[in-house]
Design brief:
Blueprint: H1 12-17, E1 20-30, E2 33-43, E3 46-50, H2 58-74, E4 83-85, E5 88-90, H3 98-103, E6 111-115, H4 123-136, E7 141-145, H5 152-162, E8 167-171, H6 177-189, E9 196-198, H7 207-213, E10 219-222, H8 230-240, E11 244-246, H9 253-265, E12 296-298, H10 306-311, H11 316-336
Parallel strand pairs: 5-6, 6-7, 7-8, 8-9, 9-10, 10-11
Antiparallel strand pairs: 1-2, 2-3, 4-12
The protein binds magnesium ion.
Length: 337
């Protein structure tokens, strides 16, 4: 039985016949790579992006393929909103550099994510950076992201101090789901109700429920592709019962349009999303990139330009690699779907 809400997996030949593989230089090295490779496919509903990180195996990456097929063959669900609030991001710079970082954002800033717990830095560096953001933007929402950089005692101590700056939430203070649950419980015992968000702990479809069941977080940071696309992500999110923030996997504007469509479909969207990442790439597949104005990202589809697809075309060897990758993931998807 299939319904409008279920993806009918198209024949492999149809998928491969439209395949374009691009390799786009990164402005800043990320996950050890200086080029972002991505496979783009076109179906009757539009373009989909298949760009799991290179080391991901079919058990994980086939969910990303399902997401790309949804975009290309099924299209996006009816949106509940037409623009998505984004957050600005302040990396682990010195407090004196915060103003310069924020000045790069056009228009008003409603929400800022501040990186904390950087190796080689101290809690007073973090406090000074967050204090500077609070001073410059007294009305903005501020959240901190530790990217798993603390152990349990450091997390509790740091968040106790950082809470004084009135934070929306703290993202992934420690590495594991159990650790997050402990940090959250210890803060609550001290009468601190700071919300905890899980990001790195949510990588696969089963993770949101694990986080919710362990009472490890109050907020989930999710990406559309690893959860198998928008409709699948919506089902998983609903089961978890937690509010969500949508982030990107460093895709081109095509993948970002799927992230925006997921954010547009959520029943509630209480926080700014992390979908402003096209600017980290030194190129895109469209002249009309999906970027924010005044902190708001439009919800729309993206059509790539042939000229840019050609300009950023990957080598023949890399195209073959991605073809084979799609074949393997397709087999995995068909068997497990
Ligand atoms: Mg994060």
């Amino acid at each position: 039985m299939t319904s409008a809400n279920e993806l009918v997996v198209p024949p492999l030949d149809d998928i491969l016949s439209t395949l374009r593989v691009v390799s786009i230089p990164m402005k800043v090295k990320f996950r050890g790579v200086t080029y972002r490779e991505s496979a783009l496919i076109k179906g009757p509903a539009g373009w989909g992006e298949f760009a799991p990180f290179l080391e991901y195996q079919p058990a994980e990456a086939s969910a990303w393929l399902k997401g790309a097929l949804e975009a290309a063959w099924q299209g996006f669900p009816e949106p509940k909103r037409h623009e998505i609030p984004l957050n600005a991001t302040v990396p682990a710079v010195g407090a004196h550099e915060v103003e310069r970082v924020l000045s790069r954002y056009e228009g008003s800033i409603r929400e800022v994510k501040v990186k904390v717990a950087e190796k080689g830095q101290t809690l007073s560096d973090d406090c000074a950076r967050v204090a500077k953001v609070r001073e410059l933007l007294p009305d903005a929402g501020i959240k901190v992201d530790a990217n798993m950089g603390w152990d349990l005692p450091q997390a509790v101590e740091s968040l106790t101090h950082l809470s004084e700056y009135d934070l929306l939430y703290a993202e992934q203070p420690v590495a594991t789901i159990e650790g997050l649950a402990q940090v959250r419980a210890e803060l609550r015992e001290k009468g601190n109700s700071l919300l905890i968000a899980a990001d790195e702990s949510v990588r696969k479809a089963e993770d949101p429920l694990k986080v919710a069941q362990a009472k490890a977080a109050d907020v989930l940071i999710i990406k559309a592709a690893p959860l198998g696309g928008i409709r699948s992500a919506l089902r998983i999110v609903e089961k978890s019962g937690l509010p969500c923030v949508i982030s990107s996997a460093l895709e081109t504007s095509i993948g970002i349009s799927a992230g925006a469509a997921l954010a547009a479909s959520l029943p509630e969207l209480p926080f700014g999303c992390g979908l402003g990442t096209v600017s980290l790439l030194d190129g895109d597949v469209t002249e009309n990139s999906l970027v924010a104005r005044d902190g708001m990202l439009p919800v729309r589809t993206v059509e790539p330009s042939q000229e840019l697809l050609t300009r950023f075309s990957a080598s023949d060897a890399r195209v073959r690699w991605w073809r084979e990758r799609i074949e393997h993931n397709y087999a995995h998807l068909v068997i497990n779907n």
